[in-house]
Amino acid sequence: MNFAKQVTSNRDKGISVVHYYKTDDGQSKDDQGKYEKFAIDHKQMLRVGAVNCDDFPAICNKEGIESFPTYRVYPPVPVPTIDVDVAGGLDTDKLKKSCYRHIGSRVIELTENNYETFRTDNPNKPKMLLFTDKKSTPVVYKALSTHFDQTLEFGIVRPSEESLIKKFKVKDFPVFYLLQNVDSKPLKYDGDSFLFSDLFEFINIYSETFVFGEAKENVESAAARPWNSAEMPYITQQSGNDVCFMRDGTLCVIYIVPNKESSSPKVIDELKFVQDNFSRKISRGIQFAFSRLDASAEPGLA
User: Fold this and answer.
1) Contact 287/247 with Cβ under 8 angstroms?
2) Phi-psi region of 172 (alpha: psi -120 to 50; beta: other; left: phi over 0)
3) Cis-peptide, bond into residue 78, ω within 30° of zero
4) How far apart are CA 133 and CA 170, in angstroms?
5) Same domain for 59 and 13?
6) Residue 282: Cβ-neighbour burial (10 angstroms; 0-12, 13-18, 19+)
7) Residue 36 and residue 43: Cα distance in Å, rounded?
8) b/e per residue, 245-269, with b = 16+ CB within 10 A?
9) How far apart are CA 302 and CA 295, in angstroms?
10) What digits encode the pLDDT tens for the residues 147-194?
């Protein structure tokens, strides 16, 4: 009665994990403790469930389960399901990796240049800030940004952004702040745990309390797409569609350089001059989009 709700319907943006077993399959009883801990550690972040195929053979037949136990990850559609190899016993690290790789992210990298845009765009929409000394974005933070995609915006600040570190008086990492609105005083998360469930509860209170009117609309902050305001933006996998590839009626002029350091200021000035002269003066005809491509950073595109 609940398989579709817990698994199938969850695949619009969530991830489910299902343990298919039989009472006498010889392994599932040994795996039980590890799997239950995995479920507790990922409470609210993942849907974690189990199906006894002795009791519910119709589900297992429909899902094509042929060996027991089977641990199946259901990522967001259209990504196909993944069966995790558990020969020799359940390895929860393997299970985590299979899930984490499919967690999306709406986290914006914040710098001194785009922080004010992030703060003031959608002024009634609460903002979360994570100050971290990690090079990557924590998977828990990514998952939160996806879950609250309609009600909050998420930014991340690295130690190199000294002005923002000083502004928020950050002395240790990680630190989470919530900005109620554009004029509010930052509210610090004082919990000891950085589990998804604890951060979820902290955020959930404020996403329900402080989201008014236009903030409920899913309007993306301009800080997420800084290339749209750049005079001669770099084309990347992330910016390519906006800068060039998906712009109807536009011809792209791309200055390809071995690396950013070799981008000649003289050539850039010439390109800007040409761009100004070829800018469209009326609302019809061909439009030109001028950009740069760093071949060392984007070898595939180059």
Assistant:
1) yes
2) beta
3) yes
4) 11
5) yes
6) exposed
7) 10
8) eeeeeeeeeebebeeeeebeeeeee
9) 5
10) 888 888 999 999 999 999 999 999 999 999 999 888 888 999 988 888
Whole-number Å distance between alpha carbons of 265 and 101:
40
Distance CA 292, CA 268 (A): 9
pLDDT tens digits along 62-84: 999 999 999 999 999 889 999 99
Range of the domain at 233: 225-294
Last residue of a domain, one of 223, 250, 277: 223
In a domain? residue 300: no
Q: Are residues 145 and 55 part of one domain? A: no
Nearest to 245 by CA among 279, 289, 192: 289
Distance between CA atoms of residues 28 and 18, nearest Å: 12
> What pTM value is reported for the model?
0.67
Structure tokens at 68: 């027991």
